[in-house]
Design brief:
By secondary structure, the protein is an alpha/beta fold. It has one domain: Diaminopimelate Epimerase, Chain A, domain 1 (Roll). Helix content is 44%, strand content 16%. Strands 3-2-1-4 form a 4-stranded mixed β-sheet, with helices on both faces. A hairpin with a 4-residue loop joins strand 2 and strand 3. Helix 1 runs parallel beside helix 5 and helix 4 packs antiparallel against helix 5. The chain is globular and about 40 Å long. It starts with a helix and ends with a strand.
């Protein structure tokens, strides 16, 4: 399954919006099947491959989606993971799951990204010298 170009643009716009008021970084990675079978393990691999652990404040968030297998994961780097409330990632995944169950992948990702953006803004407000450390584009494999 391929995500249509207009939906990709919706996801990228959600990333840009989420990053406006934070030094945090959000990435989305989409692939067909999950090569490891375990979306969390694969998300950890992709996180490292994309260099997301190299952000200054360790505040990167990765949304991983294996569309063929209907699996996904959301993981945050040490800095953000240590600060979000207990259950935050599970609640975010549940919001996304409701959209995904209806085939609304762009809406689900955009909702999850917006939710993560609020936490990033709260714990990592945008700094005067902030730069976009990671690409906002969706990565594919």
């Amino acid at each position: 399954m391929q995500i249509p170009a207009e939906q990709q643009q919706q996801i990228i716009a959600a990333i840009k919006q989420a990053e406006l008021a934070t030094s945090g970084e959000v990435r989305v990675h989409i692939e067909g099947p999950c090569p490891t079978g375990d979306p969390v393990a694969r998300a950890i691999e992709v996180f490292a491959h994309l260099g997301m652990h190299q952000t200054r404040e360790q505040n990167g968030v990765l949304f991983y989606l294996a569309v063929d297998d209907r699996k996904f994961a959301v993981i945050g780097d040490k800095g953000i993971d240590a600060r979000v409330p207990a259950g935050f990632w599970d609640e975010t995944k549940e919001l996304m799951r409701r959209h995904f169950a209806q085939g609304q992948y762009a809406e689900g990702l955009a909702g999850g990204i917006a939710r993560a953006g609020e936490q990033l803004k709260h714990y990592f407000p945008r700094l005067a010298d902030d730069s976009n450390e990671l690409s906002d584009d969706i990565s594919f494999s």
